[in-house]
């Protein structure tokens, strides 16, 4: 998602853009995600820094423009808010902490709201400016948009190495040597072949996430549920997407029925109406994590190489803002915030 967003920002600044994708464009972590645009919730739950909050808010604001360009219905985009419920005492404390964090960060948050119909909880708060989209619609639509805009996309073509030669960056693939003024590395959690060239890649680690979907006749959920132990999102064709486990260090995408059943049970506790629905599918994906949970954005080690790495579970949310930020660096030399520089790990 980060790579496609950088490509979009650059091609719209009249750059000649070529994308090398090891698999199928628009798949990977994007396809496996939940399509959350929950900047308010994410920042409040993590008590995020001002720099990350600003990036998330920028991403949220740009999604409105993206929806206009890509077609709101084409990507299932909506801003219905996030409702966070609580039942146990610990969960109530979690809500209070999030509300306090939101106030300190200037994030819109409504406390002590009336419980929506069908939601089983003692209390809930709402982040009214948060939204969501259908990530499986977004991937192919964004790929088509880039091709229509003139970008060249090479699928199933891994990058073997990068070198700097005579002021250009040489990208080596199985098909040959290709030369560019600038290269953006925007891989997922696994890019071992390039770790010797770009040390930032050594800081990435996979965080496995398992999810499921439910199908069948059911009521419309006009908002997204973000509880402490699960989230529930209904896509525009009616299916409910439930996520997600968080399993650091695991790099497989095998599905564990025990984990899936536990995740479904948690969701059904919040929305009992889900018990009548049938399992649609279950799957797993890999999030690209970093040691401190922050993305790595900006200039890389080699001249002409830039990085957009480690967006973890906020790849969709942050993508438009990350794309614009990297385009600023590439085209105008504007520095990214020091908080996101990969060099922060070398200084510790």
Characterize the structure shown.
With 348 residues, this protein is an alpha+beta fold. Among the domains are: 2-35 and 135-193 and 292-344, 3-Layer(bba) Sandwich (FAD/NAD(P)-binding domain); 205-289, D-Amino Acid Oxidase, Chain A, domain 2 (2-Layer Sandwich), CATH 3.30.9. The protein is 32% helix and 24% strand. The protein has 9 helices and 18 strands. The chain has helices spanning 2-11, 28-32, 39-46, 50-70, 72-75, 89-105, 135-148, 257-270, 315-332, and strands at residues 18-20, 36-37, 82-86, 123-127, 131-132, 152-154, 161-165, 168-173, 176-180, 183-185, 205-215, 224-226, 231-234, 240-243, 247-248, 278-289, 296-299, 305-309. Strands 3, 4, 11, 12, 13, 14, 15 and 16 form an 8-stranded mixed sheet that branches. The protein has a 3-stranded antiparallel sheet with strand order 7-8-9, with no helix packed on it. Strand 12 (224-226) and strand 13 (231-234) form a beta hairpin. Helix 1 (2-11) runs parallel beside helix 7 (135-148), helix 1 crosses helix 9 and helix 3 packs across helix 6 (89-105). It is globular and about 65 Å long. It starts with a helix and ends in a 16-residue tail after the last helix. The model has no long low-confidence stretch (mean pLDDT 95).
Topology of this structure?
Layout: H1 2-11, E1 18-20, H2 28-32, E2 36-37, H3 39-46, H4 50-70, H5 72-75, E3 82-86, H6 89-105, E4 123-127, E5 131-132, H7 135-148, E6 152-154, E7 161-165, E8 168-173, E9 176-180, E10 183-185, E11 205-215, E12 224-226, E13 231-234, E14 240-243, E15 247-248, H8 257-270, E16 278-289, E17 296-299, E18 305-309, H9 315-332
Parallel strand pairs: 1-6, 3-12, 10-18
Antiparallel strand pairs: 2-5, 3-4, 7-8, 8-9, 11-14, 11-15, 11-16, 12-13, 13-14, 17-18
């Amino acid at each position: 998602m980060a790579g496609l967003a950088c490509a979009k920002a650059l091609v719209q600044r009249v750059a000649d853009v070529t994308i090398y994708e090891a698999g199928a464009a628009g798949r990977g972590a994007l396809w496996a995600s939940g399509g959350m645009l929950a900047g308010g919730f994410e920042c409040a739950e993590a008590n995020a820094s001002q720099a990350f909050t600003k990036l998330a808010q920028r991403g949220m604001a740009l999604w409105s423009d993206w929806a206009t360009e890509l077609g709101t219905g084409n990507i299932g985009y909506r801003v219905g808010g996030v409702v966070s419920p609580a039942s146990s005492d610990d969960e109530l404390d979690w809500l209070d902490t999030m509300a306090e964090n939101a106030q300190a960060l200037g994030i819109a948050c409504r406390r002590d709201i009336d419980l929506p119909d069908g939601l089983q909880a003692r209390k809930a708060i709402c982040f009214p400016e948060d939204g969501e989209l259908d990530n499986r619609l977004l991937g192919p639509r964004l790929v088509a948009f880039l091709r229509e805009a003139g970008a060249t996309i090479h699928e199933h073509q891994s990058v073997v190495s990068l070198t700097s030669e005579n002021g250009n960056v040489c990208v080596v693939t199985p098909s040959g040597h290709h030369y560019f003024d600038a290269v953006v590395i925007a891989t997922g959690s696994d890019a071992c072949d390039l770790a010797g060239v770009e040390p930032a890649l050594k800081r990435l680690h996979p965080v496995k996430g398992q999810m499921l979907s439910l199908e069948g006749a059911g009521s419309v959920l006009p908002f997204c549920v973000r509880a402490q132990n699960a989230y529930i999102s209904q896509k525009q064709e009616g299916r409910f997407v439930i996520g997600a486990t968080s399993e650091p260090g695991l790099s497989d995408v095998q599905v564990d029925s025990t984990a899936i059943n536990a995740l479904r049970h948690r969701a059904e506790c919040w929305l009992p109406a889900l018990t009548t629905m049938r399992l649609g599918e279950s799957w797993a994906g890999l999030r690209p994590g970093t040691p401190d949970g922050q993305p790595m954005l900006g200039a890389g080690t080699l001249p002409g190489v830039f990085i957009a790495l480690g967006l973890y579970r906020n790849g969709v949310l942050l993508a438009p803002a990350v794309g614009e930020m990297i385009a600023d660096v590439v085209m105008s030399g504007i520095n990214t915030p020091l908080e996101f520089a990969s060099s922060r790990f070398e200084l510790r």
